[in-house]
Specification:
Blueprint (H helix, E strand, L loop, with lengths): L1 E5 L2 E8 L2 E8 L3 H10 L4 H13 L11 H16 L6 H16 L2
Antiparallel strand pairs: 1-2, 2-3
Helix pairs in contact: 1-2, 1-4
Length: 107
């Protein structure tokens, strides 16, 4: 995993299992966050819905990535991801959502 931080701008790249994950969004920039999810393979509607949840809550604690609503949303999305409707696997989807959320929150 490579991470570059320039003030509130962060870029993360990672490769593994023939999949490259690159997250490049700006802290607190909801549109950047949403666009990064879409470019990583998250369907538009899911990216918009998840973006709204992330923008309205903070992580539950210092060792968590998501708040309760985001965690619940991800749990509900898992069957669709597992069916292949997102076009990316569960581990990639989870990693993309986690990394993008961390960068949105400034972590």
């Amino acid at each position: 995993v490579n991470m570059t931080v320039h003030g509130p701008n962060t870029m993360i790249t990672s490769t593994g299992s023939q999949t490259e994950i690159a997250i490049n969004n700006v802290q607190g920039d909801l549109k950047s966050f949403e666009n990064e999810l879409i470019s990583a393979g998250v369907p538009d509607s899911a990216a918009k819905e998840f973006s709204q949840i992330i923008s309205n809550e903070k992580p539950e604690g210092p060792d968590t990535t998501f708040g309760n609503k985001a965690s619940e949303w991800l749990g509900k999305a898992m069957p669709e991801i597992a069916k292949g409707t997102w076009g990316i696997g569960i581990s990639v989807a989870t990693r993309v959502l986690e990394e993008a959320a961390k960068k949105y929150y400034g972590g």
